Amino acid sequence: MAGMNDEAGAAADDALYVLTALLLTPAQFPSVLGDDYPEACSALGLAPRADGYGLVLGQDGNGARWTVAIDDVSLVAVAIASWDCGMEYDLSPDESAVVAALPGWPLAVAVAAPGIPAPHDPPPEVAGQPPLSPPDTGSWGPAQRRLGADEIALQWAVWREQINDDDFSAPRTPAKGAEPAPQGERSTSKGGHQGVQRVLAEAHAYVDSPPPPGRVRSSFASPGARTLRVDGPGWSMVARTDDIAFVLLDEEPGEVRPIGRGPRLPGLLEALDRLAARPE
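Structure tokens predicted for Integral membrane protein:
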């Protein structure tokens, strides 16, 4: 793949062995990088373009890690969709689409290109800047809180089936493989918890004063329902517009607090869905 800057491109023999790709848009971005789209862009040193970016992660001919940001978002979206379906797709962006070539990877990649040295960061004289590296998720904090919310959204049915609508106060055992924190405990709540009340108040404020792009995201859940992902300073909420919500807080490591539907939650979720960023 061509398009890296001259110095880096020379070191890579003008080739990038593509390992994976990601979307970085207001509606879809690696949430581990930030609570909203501008924050995720800032983690990579990129300006938050309205149309977003496609991120191509790979290795150069020397094995060095590189992240290439391109403005052809649809190309990366097609590649990801093809790979998800088990189809081959040669992701080779045109040089004119390249916005930046960034040393390192912002997320961990479990595979490596065959026939070249093992993945490593390019040397400083080639990189020209500190290399990207995955956020620290070894202990509870914003990055792991957002990863926990990702897992709940992905495994909604697993989490939901453990909640008894008649009793939101009894602690329960976490589902195997679905716990967001390595040593955390699940707990439940009827919504009277002080931290939960703060989350609901800040989420309500979003309706009157829209937050930065990506703070509220909406994706398909089932016919007539959407999955909402809402984030704020120190908290994440995952909800379905036809059901309940789950809240995670920075100050409560590994805790997940469900919020029953009640009389007010449905209206809040509908209002948030109307202002949410949606995948095209």
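The chain is about 25% helix and 20% strand.
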